[in-house]
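Dear colleague,

Thank you for sharing your sequence with our group. We've completed the structure prediction you requested, and as agreed, I am returning the results in plain text so they can be pasted directly into your records. Please verify that the sequence below matches your submission; if there's any discrepancy, let me know and we will rerun it promptly.
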Amino acid sequence: MKSARIPAGLSVAVLLAALVLHLLARGDPATGPATTATAPTSAPAPPPSRVDVNQFGAIGDGAADDTPAFTRALATVAPRGGVVFVPVGDYRIASHLEIPSGVTLEGVWSAPSSRAEHRGSTLLASEGAGAEQGAAFITLGANSTLKGISVFYPDQRPEKIVPYPWCIAGSGGESAAIIDCLLINPYQAVDFGSKPSGRHYIRNLYGQPLRRGLFVDKCFDIGRIENVHFWPFWTWDDKSGIQNYLQSNGEAFIFARADWEYVLNTYCYGYKIGYHFTQSKDGPTNGNMVGIGADATNVAILVEATQPPGLLITNGEFVSFVGDNPTEVVIADSHTGSVQFQNCAFWGMAHQVARIAGAGTVSFNNCNFVEWANGVPAIDLSGGNLLVNGCSFGKPSPQAVLQGSAQSAIFSANRFAGPFSVANPAKANLQAGLNVEKK
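Please find the predicted structure tokens below.
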């Protein structure tokens, strides 16, 4: 074999460089010639987390149907969650909207408008006129939020109220929220009960629901409701008949099955029933109600059923003076649980403060009874048990009557504006002591 000759004039360094280039060109025998490296392709851009409905064609002039634009905007942020922003305007929604899980539909509302004024981000609803059943105007998915939005039904008339489906409803997912919203004149406002609604959250909700305000059921994990105000934000023109309609048909707050419902600073005006505690096939409620109020009602609080832990009602204010035999508290014959009133006030031209039936227990502690009909017992106990402690009776009329199936009653450390007067035809176990009475 002949030896390779190094051409004259070439240095060793040059030869080594040439050899490297030769090997790179040949590549690995197993894989073929080397190829030039290319830059990696970029990943697809994630969907935006915040969009504006105007970007999708919403007009907000109160005439054009903006439903398709809202639907496209909500679908755009649905894959990862986000915010669909609604600028100031009147947006006509001809059908209904579904807010996907993890999505917020947000407007610019920050304070309730008075009467028929509606400003800010307002949705105009019209679907479903004439029927209580049907798709809700807005359906909330799990972990979704409606925020800063007003809703107005332009075809509703105070002189001829027409039924509509629920304005807002849960879809069956948990942790849906309503924050800073004004529902001006819905026939039915919020349904967190037809489908499971655990851990719902409502804060700063205003409006004038015409038939039902807020319905809670199937809440198997703690729900929270704060600062809800149902009042004549639409109209209270007596010539239209709206007052009589609400006082004959309206129910502001309805609670069925709810486990540990927390309710804070809620109020209603002008309804037949202020707070209705009932029972569904899933059961009744228990909860902690603080600073709740009902004014101008026929019955401020109606209790048909409670769970054994009962209802804790603290710092409440209740006024009943419309309709037949207006009464602040009515406990139905079906009740077997416990209701506790602590530091509450009862006034207005009521016929009675309380009518109590059933087999449960009702207690009044540190409460103030201001007004009821002359000569009529403030409390009528026809079933169950009654405890009245540290309360003030502001009239010299009888404090109570124990009749029917009344089992027991205790009156202790109370102040009476007249003589102690509790009739006991039922021969219930009556205990009284340490009371102060005016002879």
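Summary note from our side: The radius of gyration is 33 Å.

Kind regards,
the structure core
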